[in-house]
Amino acid sequence: MARLGASAPVASYTRRNIPAYQVLDDAALLAIEAQADWILDRIGIEFRGDDVALDFFREAGARVDGQRVTFEPGHARSLCSTAPEQFTLYARNPEKNVQLGGDHVVLMPGYGSPFVSDLDRGRRYATLEDFQNFVKLTYATHWLHHSGGTVVEPTDVPVNKRYLDMVFSHLTLSDKPFMGGVTSPDRARDSITMARLVFGPEFMYQNAVIQGNINVNSPLIYDDTMSGALRVYAEAGQCVCVSPAIFSGAMGPLSPAAVAAQTLAEGMVGIALAQLVKPGCPVVFGSFHSTMNLKSGALTFGSPEANLATMVLSQLGHRLGVPVRSGGGHISASNAADGQAMQDSVGAMWATLLSGAHQVWHAAGWLEGGLVMSYEKFIMDLDHCGAMMTLLQGFEATEEAFGRDAYLETGPGENFLSTAHTLRHFATANFQPDIPEGGPFETWSENGSLRADQRATAQWKTMLSAYEPPALEDSIKTALSDFVTERKTAMKDEWY
């Protein structure tokens, strides 16, 4: 397993070279942090059905009354202090290791959609083939740095078994970092066991190679499924991402300030539990939030209020001293890969990347508020991911960048197309998207008048047809396959 050594490189294209945007000043951030402390002191967080978690908090000095845990102001934050500010998440291919924290940005595909859509077959329930397709597409693009987790729900596989197929797919069809199962503590353990078969127990003892997504049952509840899975990942020293999910007006008050404070309160308690289980456990402070249409009750995405909360939560996470997973990304409530979808998505993604978030989920494919992963929107989003990552690089003001020799080759009124400077840089000077059509109307019309989503259809089909799996030792793949078969054989099919 020498190829997994700690000296492996980190992809340079995950770094930002422009500063994060600061929305609030210190006084406002302190007020939000004080409100989070007020929630934890006066209201508290319930851990339902998890006596082990309650014992951890009781022993740490928190107040435990039944299933509810309350904290003196500042106590929860102090319990988070052993979490690393930055860490490496190792990939099967060392060249695809990523850093979480610092000036790094890690993009991931969408997560959790039960449906998929494409222009050929329309909207339908997702299958294991769809799941595998999106893992392949994610592997094939360099704009997504992480394979994701439950990219879509493979509904043709029993609920209690599908996590095995998903982890197997991530480990065999891709060599990027990935996420494991969290829908029960046993499924979390199986995911970690599969990772050990690939990375080796000694390497995993000291390094994070897998993430678990722990959703808070907002408002202010951790159920035993989530807290139990959190403890499994933490015990193994693997990455725990704690993600409150607050829809303003439903799971918390309406204002961005209240959403930010409640998210911080819920997130700190989950991070604290991970640190109590194993001090130094790598964690990510996550969020998923949206506003509502208060006339209809429908969720909205990319709204200015939600985007402001996204930016403030990154500031709060930086102050907490842990990597931040943004609640944004290319998210939309639209039912099609249309103008509304891209308007929602661009607004949310701009706020996310300018905020200084370190890990961005739902960076490609999401429609209908996450109910659908669209093949076409996935490709359209990839183009925007590339544009945004290029923007984050900034530009250099160097002697070569100024191109003085080009001025000396030409004169006033002459063009620069054939200068040596242009010829040196034409291939890399500008970001080149894959699907936009910038030619004249006549050419576009002669080529079939294809819309962006239609051109995206051709692109995802081309990517899948060209896919070749990354190398994996036969013995490791056999061990994984045997483990999956053994575990599935021991279970009865459960469809609900």
UniProtKB/TrEMBL annotation:
EC main group: transferase
GO terms of biological process kind: methanogenesis; methylation
EC number: 2.1.1.-
Domain of life, source organism: Bacteria
Pfam hit, one: MTTB
GO molecular function: methyltransferase activity
InterPro entries linked: MttB-like_sf, MTTB_MeTrfase
Keywords, sorted A to Z: Methyltransferase, Transferase
Family, as annotated: Belongs to the trimethylamine methyltransferase family.
The protein's name in its UniProt record: Methyltransferase
Organism of provenance: Ruegeria denitrificans
